[in-house]
Structures are given as structure tokens and as C-alpha cells.
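User: What would this chain look like folded?
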Amino acid sequence: MSKGRFAVRAGVRDWLIAVGVAAALLVTGVFGQHSATATRLDLLGHGLLVAGGLALAAGRRAPVLVLAVTGVCAVGYQAAGFDVAAVAYLFAVYAAMRAGHRVVTVVASVAVLAVLPLAALVSGLHDTGEAFAQARGALEIAWLIAAGAAGEALRQAERRADEAERTREETARRRADEERLHIARELHDSLTHQISVIKVQAEAAVHVARKRGEPVSDALLAIREAGREASRELRATLEALRDDDKSPPCGLDHVPELVERAGKSGLEATLTIEGQRHDVPAAVGRTAYRVVQESLTNIARHADAGTASVRIDFQPDALAIRVDDDGKATPDSVPEPGIGLLGMRERVTALGGRLRAEPRSGGGFTVQAELPLERAS
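Assistant: Here's the prediction, encoded as C-alpha cells.
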């Protein structure tokens, strides 16, 4: 929206310049003529003066066309007997050079410089020497070169600014990737080994106690379960940190595997795909996978559910995901959002989508996500 506002302001500015140049040319043409040539003023000359100035309003959109129009107008009103400088053409040269049309601008300027003396001769007001002097006065070569150089300099400056902006963004992304991988390495080196030791020792202690026929304390069982849970959480965290969003390991094609694994764990899970299937941006596919993955994980851990359904709807401008379970959640006992749910919401929101996760009135929990395709493309 902001770009639209800037575009409108630029258009208004172009029209103000065009009207100002047209008015200046017309005033110069009317009041700057000698009495000997005043009788040669006619509607055609006035029209060419105004047309040359107003054409500048389109200089941002069609610089080459404006260059041609202003050049023809300058030659035309010179032939009509107007001793007026080709100011509009200089503006057009600047705009064309700024847009990068260097060769066309040089060729057109050489042509205008060659034709202007002939136009002054056609007017019948000057002899050959005066015609060349008049042409030189109408379009000073120094001013022509200056206009072209200014346009080229500004174009180069804008190009360098764009490149600098792209470089800054790439550097920021690279540093973020490096920092994320550094954190993953630190977590792996500092925590993975210790958690693995705790888990193995707890498993061994439980196994030995049961083999001897001794009762296993609740504290030992809790330690074993906490070790398993911490190991799973750490693996998921490391996987998320190492996901660089450029070559995503998982997407929509891997959702059936998620549902199948959930079924093997004792949960009756089904997958339904609706709509006309089509390619979606990688970011959308990756986020859809994460939403389904986290939803099924939460169902297995917390829902105490027997069934779960995953529905993916391919819409023309969005991808809709819905995961339902028949667990114990009710509107009266709304669970506190955990890390997984917050992560889902952040991923969906980053793509401009919407996420709704709440218990149903009839029991069970529903996760709904809508991911727009346009913004992520």
C-alpha cells in the first residue's frame, strides 16, 4: 500500500513538472518572439510547444516514446518559426538516460542536432548561418551532455543502492543461518550427550529392577519418561534450527508418512485431501507439514484420543488444513498453549495466514490453519 501512495505522488510530481515546462515554453514562444516573426505564430506552433511539455508526464513510464515526441515537437516548432529552447527534450534525455536507454538516447540526440538547423531554414526566418546559430541556441550541446550525464549518474546511483540493499539482506540472512547452526551445534554438544546418559541409565535401572523382581519406584519411572521426552524435544529443536528454509526436508508430500506413523502408534488417523491438487510454494508446504506434525504430536501426548483426522483442502488462493481428534479436551478446560502451538502460530502468521486451535463444544480438539499462496510465492 505504501508503494501505491508513493506511485501516486510520483505521478503528481511528473504532471506538475510537465505542466510547468509546457507553460514556460508557451510563454517563451508567445512573448519571446521578435516582431518580425510574431506574425508566424499559429495554432500548430502553440500546440507543439504545449505537447512537448505535457509529454514529460509519461517520462517515467515510456521514456523512449517521450524522447521521440519531445524531439519531434522541438523540430516542429523550430520549423514553425519559434525561437524557443528545446527544454522539454533535455528533460526527456535525462529521463531516458536514467532509465538506461543510453544508445537510443545518443542516436536520437544526434538526429535532433542534425535536423534542427534544417528546421530553422524551413521556417524562412534565417539564412544558413543564422539557422545553425539558432539550432545551437535551441539545443546547446553542453546542456544536452549534462542532461544525459545527470540521468546516467542517477541511474548508476540507484543501481548501486539496490545492490547494497540486496547485499545487506543476504548478509543478514547468512548471519542468521550461521547463528542458528551455531546454536544447534552448542545444544547438540552440551545437552545431547548428558540427556542420553540420563536416559540410558534410567532405562538400565528399570530393566535391572524388573529382572530382579524388585518394585520400580515412581521417581525412577518419572526420570526415565522425562529422559525420553527431553530427547524427543531436543531432536525436534535441533531439526528446526537446522532447517534453513532453502532445501526443506519435509513438505506436503511427506504428510501421508506422518499420518501413517501416527496410526502405528495406536492412534486411528486418517488423511483426506480435497480440491484440485496443485503446486504450492515451498514455504507453504513446509509450514503445512509442521502444523500437521505438531498437531499429531500433541494428540499423541496430551489428548488421550482414539481417532484423529487430517484434512487438507487445496483452494485457488490458499491451502486450508484441519486436524481434529476425539480427545478429552472441552471448552471448559482450555489447555495452556505450549511451545509447539506457539511455534505453529508463528510459522502460519509469518506467511500471512491464520491459525485457530481450540476445543470443540462436543469434545475433542481442532487445529485449523489457512495459508495464503500469493504472499508466499
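The CA atoms of residues 265 and 300 lie 8 Å apart. If you want, I can go into more detail on any region.
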